[in-house]
Batch of 2 targets.
Target 1
Amino acid sequence: MRELKFAGAVAALAVAHQLGLPTETAVILAVAALIYFALRHPRRSRAQDPPGISDPRQATLLSQAHAQDLGSARDRQIIGQMAPGSALYLASHLSHASSIAQGMPHRRAGDLARKSAHLARQATAVHRALSNPRTRHSARTAAMVRSLARQTSRLNSATKRSGRSLSRNPAGRDFSVYLGSASALAGTLDTSYARAHTDHHAAARHDRARRRAEAQTRHAQRAARQRAGQVTSLARKLAALAAALLPAAYRDRYIEEFRSDLWELARSGASRRRQLREAWGMLRTVLSLRRALLAGRKRNPPS
Amino acid sequence: MVSRGAPRMTMPTQLVLRTLLARPAEEMYGLQICGEAGLPSGTIHPILARLAGLGWLVSRWEDTTAQEEGRPRRRYYRLTQEGVEQARLALAKADAAKATRGLRTRWVRGEA
């Protein structure tokens, strides 16, 4: 973007040169091109900062964020360390149930084995998602955990309904026990995950609030420094640009003079906006100053 | 038509000259003149340069105290003896022209 602006300015100068226009007109065209490109592609403005750190709401928010961090650290640790293990355990239960179902002398044995194997694969996927810190708290993982619990519970209920025919042989009984245990485990995993998931998002919200508060503190500190006599960077650059448009012999003098004016302004407590207005005034009248300097050059050599 | 040896007596020029004439022996720096004349910083520099070009003003950098204080140096301006006389004359002419214009306007409106 910067290159585009300067390319525009150089192009304007070249066109003015080709047309044989006077230097001042060429400079005006170049500055106009710079301003045009700056306005057409402005920098992204920052969102307005929240009120000062002295604000009691901010202090409350910060303390809440700390409390929330402390409170949720335990749950986050549990979900980080225990949940992947639980999912793996659940997968092994379901896989075991599936292999039992395959050997059962039951008319729905094939169907039960296929459903158990599908749930085992789903539990393995959940284990993988929970083991990765990046996907642990994603919406997709939450949906997978919920779906796994629901489907395991549904299969368990269906198995219980046909309990009489299954309990006739030992394999059927084993299958029911494994599936019941898997269903209970999936339910617990779902509940604990949901709690940790909610806490995680609450903690993330408070993290964002804390970052905002920190940014706002930095902003307040910057404003305090400015009040103590620091000239705004953009104002300094505008003044330097104004000085750069003057004849070379006067450039150093006016750089220092403009800088001195801005410094005095900042020290008197002028706001950023006021400093920018003054610097813009310098840039706006620089061609008039240039003309005055060139006219006076014959009488008074620059000092 | 403005004479060759005098600046155009615009309102900002008059304000700057009046500020400098209020204390002709005293040196003043840019922002101080701005504050007393009630003009923005960008406006006074072309006027000061024009007056300096005519020899009405002299300027100098302040002594080394600025570097000791860690701030940019100030540029001090002061009217020359010729500048004081010419400025008084030019302001008197401007005032007279203004009064004449006022009279003419009232005459045209039928108030005089």
Target 2
Amino acid sequence: MVTVTADFDEAFPGLYTLAYRVAYKILGDRGESEDIAQETLARALVRWRRLADQPHGWVSRVASNLAIDRYRRRRHLSDQAASLSVVDPLLAERMDLADALRALPRRQREVVVLRYLCDWSERDVAAALGCTTGTVKRHASRGLEAMRLRLGPLLQGDDDARAS
Amino acid sequence: MTMLEHLDDPNPPSANAATRQLVLRRASRIRRQRTLTAGLCLVALLAGAVGGLAVGRGQSATVLTTTQSAYQFNRESTPLADGVAVPTAALVDVTFVDLQHGFGIALHRSKLVLASTSNGGASWKAVGPKFPTGFLQGAGFAGQMEFSSAQHGYLWGGNLLSAKGDSPLWVTDNGGRTWQPTALGPLVYDVSAIGGNVWAISGTCRSDTTVSNCAVSVDISTDGGTVWQSVSEPAPLKSPATMAPYELARITLQQAYVLAPSDGSSPFVLVFSTDGGATWATRPVPCATPFSLGAELAASSTDDLWLICGGQATSGDQLKELFRSDDGGQTWMLASSTTGSLGSASDSTAPLPASGYVAPFSIGHKTLAVLSPTTAWLFPSRGDLLTTTDGGYDWHAVPGLQSAGLNDGGAGNVTFISATQGWVCAYGIGLWHTDDGIHWSALGQ
């Protein structure tokens, strides 16, 4: 049996939403995103004693990793299942996003996921990852620049908003 | 609007008590797997130390047996040597030509390997160095195989495509040690052999072409796959832009059904021939929204058809409907269906459980085995092995296999060679056999 502590129960709704949101942005599929959110939280619970202080960075990273893995496997599948499923008009953007995230170093990806996919403030990201806002700014800036090369118009016009 | 907000789910689900329960169950499974892995590592270390003391340095005996776990199997170096023992837990697909001889597709370090058994599935050995290039797997699913004897067999991609956009057919005459490509294709959708008489559904366009009306034909070989000839009157089949769920169900040498995609009012069309492919007639297919994403056909006799229609799927559940026809597809009757919403626990009482995926999410694996007008087995991916004895009106899971965790496994299949002799396998879990059509016993464990 896995021991469930009160602080896990308390953090559960927020972490689940975080993992789901990250996965959905990449995959655009409700069922798969729920599956990934559940898997992420299950893994988090197993190692909760080590994560309890700052679980958000870990959860966002694992959820994005799982979503990107799922996305990569999808690519190897025939187009059949996808073409028969509900058509996602944003599929191309999600594919670009997954590719761009996959190319980022681990820490940059954590920052970018929390900052831009989850729309957290720099201060919140710094608190979640246990680093300074300066570090967050640096990783966010480099990550954003790397992603801009791939995503282009998707990230245009947001510089001002992000600079706040 | 903030950056990337347009990619969000407008109505995200909330984390409720049911979700929490699912997470706890998964966490328990992870914990069990970790404990098991740690135990196995400890045993392996102790065995290695004892073995090292016993035989001295420089000795490295192969310790793998059919009873090993898939995890240990994956520690074996690549490529696998011919004859290496393959654990039943590594099998993703099995087929049998008689009570003793069978073949399996196994997963080793994300590569597919062919395995064979000559003792009814009790032990398995790797055959040949590897599958031919182009025989693919995707997301845990393998292509398809069929053997008409212990030596002669067929291998095709099903609806998985190679990087070149093709999906060929290969033939072996030496039990899978070597494979020869046929001239069919470049797309081969489905194959069915009765002795040396083989039928295939093939398409003339690669999947990446934009031509919408490529020819799809039924081809026949009477010499085990060497010489092929298209049927004299083309079957009324349309070619889709991508690989599609064509399914060939042969009843006799002369009689066959083909379930195919359609651009008409129904997403599928059923065509059949009673004269060896000389002429074809069309029958309606009852799969309708929301059960119209995929379909799978099985038959127990000339007129007894079973059709399972698959809809949207999520979190291991899928909407499904089962139709029956006792007049060769002229009329259909709904036998059972899933009820309620996906993911709801109450669905476990439905006549047809929602858990598990069938077409199109079973990706080429046939999940339905029909033995008679009353008895059939259904093994949807990520679901339990289900059986019915009343013609498909009520389905229930096999209790012994349920406790074995069959629904926790990866890809797998169920196959029968008679009304009572059958096998079911699930990757990561193992292989079971029944010799009375009721009780199942684990093999290789």
